Amino acid sequence: MPQIKRYSVLALCILAVLILFPLGMSGNFWIKLLAVLALALSALGVYDLIQSRHAVLRNYPVIGHMRFLLESIRPEIRQYLIESDSEELPFSREARSLVYQRAKGAEDKKPFGTSEKVYEAGYAWVTHSVAPKVIHDTDFRISIGGPDCRQPYMASLYNISAMSFGALSANAIAALNLGAKTGGFAHDTGEGGISRYHRANGGDLIYQVASGYFGCRTAEGGFDPEKFRQQAADPQIKMIEIKLSQGAKPGHGGMLPAAKISPEIAEARGVPMGQDCLSPPAHSTFSTPIGLCNFIAELRELSNGKPIGFKLCIGHRREFMCIVKAMIETGITPDFIVVDGKEGGTGSAPLEFANRVGMPMLEGLNFVHNTLRGAGLRDRIRIGAAGKVVSAFDLARAIALGADWCNSARGFMFAIGCIQSQSCHTNACPVGIATQDKLRQRAIDVGSKSDRVARFHRNTLHALGEIAGAAGLSSPNDFLPYHFMFRQSDGTFLDGNEAFPYLPESFLVGARDYPELRDWQSRWNRASAETFEPSTIPQGRFER
Fold first, then answer.
1. Please, where are the H alpha helices in 61-119?
2. Separation of alpha carbons 159 and 180, rounded Å
3. Are residues 228 and 333 both part of a single domain?
4. What is the pLDDT of residues 330-388, one digit of tens each?
């Protein structure tokens, strides 16, 4: 009997055909319509029985399609009907609502107390002062440009992180850039080159140069110095960022199939139509730490002294120390380093990479900050941080742990209407942001969405000023680890100086021995400026 039940819906459809078609001969429109529907479902059920692709449909013809329908709308069902306000998948409803409210200029206050689980592990809070201050000017800025930079940039403390044209639609890019222009902050181009939509409204740009060298590449895919010089001469480009890796898929390249390359994408990337477009996992211009430093110096010269930096997600900590050792050996330092956390987003990443590869932002940021301190280079190099930074608290915490400024991609996507449908890789984004579909992207009105981008930025910095003032500070740049507390798994909490301490200046290069930091010094001693390869030791495996 249970075996027969599996085919009951198909049997009912066939029975309906046998009953309704004779009745439909009377000419009744609705009976005819039902008969045609029953016939269509019966035909679908017969096809389900003979097809070999989906086992569930062979066992449950017709009704089995409900499984695929429900699966296709599962993110929306979960987001709107099931998840709580604080459940992060990957951004909580509360975080998204905060961005929407600030972008629209709507009320962003919260009644009836917090919904955060303040006694559970992972909860963090700001320590406030009994003598708070009022900060009136919240247009917080930082100068980026080391001693070798000839065109330093006064950057906002909050900027738009790297998102390429191609991953985002033309209207989305245009709205983000116009918002950056209106609000006076920077817009990272992402690795896909500088499109006409980045240029249209004149917002400040950070030109990202990745392994594909889009916009400055030879016909064979290598780096073209003259093309780079021409790009960097544009006054709209304020800084150049070498992408070593990104948080969501560090160490993973990518390939844009020829079928997805439009004339506009080909124009921005400098690639031919009709050919697959490859982004290799690694750069071809350099392969050693010293090579990276020399590339930094070359880009600085070609750009006439604009700030040059690099972006990475921390993996093997020794390899970052290799880069720092190369800085010391060559005397060439970047003007900035952007630390991307593994919680960073992307339009598409293998699940294992998105979930399990790379260091989260807070730990990566603290490691980079302390390594530069230990090498005596921290005062020459600015640090940016990226990785789920959407609120003023996120900004304040990152600054306290070593960041000079922060970038956000998904925060600004929410500002232009992203609903976290998680369909970025399908070209079917329901709000027209992550798609190249001309009809879908028409949903984005560039003028009104750019206003929301600028308003979200302004209101977030205003909130940052309020938090800094509550802590008794005159500027958010004064945040230090001890202004934060971090709840531990056993119910206790640590002062920020204990959880994320600032390590002594020059402890890696000075003569003094720090017994409590010997693991740092051991890793530093294994690092080499000449190669990223680990040194060989008789014992075999060792800590990276």
1. 65-72, 74-77, 93-104
2. 8
3. yes
4. 999 999 999 999 888 776 677 787 778 889 999 999 999 999 999 999 999 999 999 99
228, part of any domain: yes
pLDDT in tens, 100-115: 999 999 887 777 778 8
d(CA 528, CA 166): 38
Hey, is 461 helix, strand or coil?
A: helix
Judge if 226 and 310 occupy the same domain.
yes
C-alpha distance from residue 426 to each of 70, 164, 277 (Å) = 17, 16, 18
48, 191: one domain: no
Number of domains comprising the chain = 2
Residue 207, beta-bridge partner list: 240
How far apart, in whole angstroms, are the C-alpha atoms of residue 220 and residue 70? 46
106 found inside a domain: no
Contact (Cβ atoms closer than 8 angstroms) between residue 276 and residue 255 = yes
| Residue 29 maps to a domain | yes
- Which of 34, 57, 79 terminates a domain? The answer is 79
HSE-CB for 167 with a 13 A CA cutoff: 19
Q: Do 194 and 68 share a structural domain?
A: no
Query: Residue 361: which residues within 8 A CB-CB, separation 6 or more?
Result: 247, 339, 340, 341, 342, 343, 344, 385, 386, 387, 388, 398
* 484-487: strand order across its sheet: 124-126, 484-487, 493-495
Query: Domain of 340: which CATH number?
Result: 3.20.20.70
Q: What does the pLDDT average to over 23-46?
A: 85
Which helix or strand (DSSP H or E) is residue 39 part of? helix 29-50
Domain boundary among 412, 445, 462: 412
Query: What is the mean pLDDT of the segment spanning 121-138?
Result: 95
> 341 in a domain, yes or no?
yes
Q: Is the pLDDT of residue 538 over 50?
A: no
Question: How open is the CA angle 500-506-510, to the nearest 5 degrees?
Answer: 135
CA–CA separation, 399 and 246 (whole Å)? 20
170 and 258 inside one domain: yes
- Same domain, yes or no, for 41 and 156? no
pTM beyond cutoff 0.85? yes
Q: Which structural domain range is residue 59 located in?
A: 7-79
Judge if the upstream peptide bond of residue 481 is cis by omega within 30 degrees of 0.
no
d(CA 244, CA 368): 15
SS3 category, 205: strand
Q: What pLDDT does 352 receive?
A: 81
Query: What DSSP designation does 81 have?
Result: I
What is the C-alpha separation between 166 and 261, in angstroms, rounded? Answer: 8
Q: Does residue 48 sit in the same domain as residue 163? A: no
The packing angle between helices 518-526 and 361-374, to 10°, is 80
- Helix H, strand E, coil C: the string for 474-518 is CCHHHCCHHHEEEECCCCCEEEHHHHCCCCCCCCCCCCCCCHHHH
**Do 40 and 160 fall within a single domain?**
no
Mean pLDDT confidence for 518-539: 86
Cβ–Cβ under 8 Å, residues 415 and 456: yes
